[in-house]
Here is the input.
Amino acid sequence: MLKTLRQIASIGIVSEPAPQADESLRIRQHLQERIRAVLGRALCIRHIDAGSCNGCELEIHALNNPLYNLEGLGVRFVASPRHADLLLVTGPVSRHMEVALRRTYEATPDPKLVVALGDCGCTGGIFGENYASRGRVSNVIAVDVAVPGCPPSPTRILQGILAALAPGTPRTPARG
Amino acid sequence: MPLRAWLERSDAHPGAPGLRALTVTRSQWRQVALDLAAGGARLLGMWASPDKRAPQVRTAFLADRGGLIVTLPEAEAGASYPGIEDLFPSAGRMQRAMADLSGIRSTDPDARPWLRHAAWPGNYLPLADPPPQATDAEPRIDAYEFVRVEGDGVHEIAVGPVHAGTIEPGHFRFSVVGEKVLRLEERLGYVHKGIEQRFTQLPILEAHRLAARVSGDSAVAFSWAYCQALEGLAGAELPARAAWLRALYLELERIANHLGDLGALGNDAGFAFGLAQFSRLKERLLRASQEALGERYLMEAVVPGGTRRDLTPDALPRLRGCLLHLEHEVLTLRTIYDEHEGVRDRFNGAGTVSAELAARLGLTGLAGRASAQAFDLRIDLPCEPYASLAPAKSGRTEGDVAARVAVRFDELLESFRLVHRILEALPGGSHVIPVHVPAEGTCGAGLIEGWRGPVFVALEAGPAGSIRRCHPHDPSWQNWPVLEHAIIGNIVPDFPLINKSFNLSYSGHDL
Here is the structure.
């Protein structure tokens, strides 16, 4: 126990300041006002791997490390789409995941945001469209923000998530 | 007939060192598999390759002294070729996948589809030659026949394909009494995205980029194995510096994955401190990699003939400094893990795979080494520079989560040593040479010990710089079926921990 505490004390706080939102990543705007009105401060994200090579998942995991301190920014990952405000979707959408992706989307309460992640989520990537792949995420569900990269760095993912929300404007907590 | 006699009849096969190839008749097919099983060989992979009229069956085995690729020509295979799932249990799913993709069936009575769900009809064969017209089936959920467990109080828990965390998709069907798991049946194939067909549409000199994306966490292992196969069939002699740089990348990939897994394993045992610490270290490594090599994950680093970039001398001290820091921290954290009673309690005795079961089921790679299956390509069948680096082999015999954690720690520390050695002794010269388009019809294979286990890529050249067939094989194929056994008798809440201790690839398996 002492060793654990010593390690915690000697490392200290390693979290870094958050990056600026990147407006260039925005591809759709229409839900923004409603989200701002409805959401509380914490943004709840549900990740869906719809056919990824697992590279993007590695960087989503990295987003949860103490340097990016995602929860400190008021963003958390949740286990159920029913608890989520935003879906973070990776991969070219495999046909075998198409129904599961649609169902997860439908299970997410309105208003909701969708961020497509990685070159595959944006365009189908190197896999493209074929008998087993539907390609880009927007071929299956509506997408608000698309973040390219193979895989996109945690900073880029964070910028994309922030772009999906209203930057610069404090949101009203959903209370009462 | 002893193994040696079959090897004497075989021919050298281009690509990885120690590979041989043998074409057999239908009557020899079972005999060679029987003799290899008796001689302690491991199944490396099975795939069908297009022939003039119908596909031929290919199987790669790994023996202590080399690999053997056995081909059963189409004319000999007939309506259904003799299955080898009784000798090598992991062959069962590979044979079912061959039926789904190439339409060639084995005699195994389990004829359920494996990689094919409802997304394309059974008469559409994605790997037929010439390729068929694309199908446009309406997506739906199909009925898959899970094996039912009957009895008082037995109920089923169905999990997936979408899981609760940031994990790849797959379906697990647990049959349980109370919390105790009686049986687990996996259903995979959800992230099948047509990788093997896609290979045939890419130029052979460019498809290493697709290989790197078979399983993103093993990008270096797959792209190296692909390039090793390609360089073998193009007759390209890899410069020493390129081989050493690839080994540097491969060890960095191993370190990154082990750091990630050790943190996640602590977290799954209720020790969030572990995740915070190890994920901090992993981030530090990824940033050092970005700085020194231009990428956090080395998706583009390995190219035909060498590496995309050279390592500049000014990058060396920072990379070295980062690794020294990581090593120091890992030693501290290992002591904390070892001394933490709560963590030890969860790790010890969870998800045990005995040495005997591991040998029978063909458990491979890191998980195999935790169950007394002491095989590591870097030591037992080394390509350059591993023969010069002489890595130490890690191993445990207990076969539980604690053993798989211990092997990760041991391999992590050994990889630190290897990286320092590589940085010290990196040969000069060119880091890349041109590779020419190989002749049509030539076959080669690459074989690299990735962080998870042996990664295998079989490659056949088509006309004018195209690919006729490329089969990438992830060791997860061998280990997924063993996970079904590892969980038996454990409780459901231990499944995430046990699953993570194997950390198998879905994408690498589903293709």
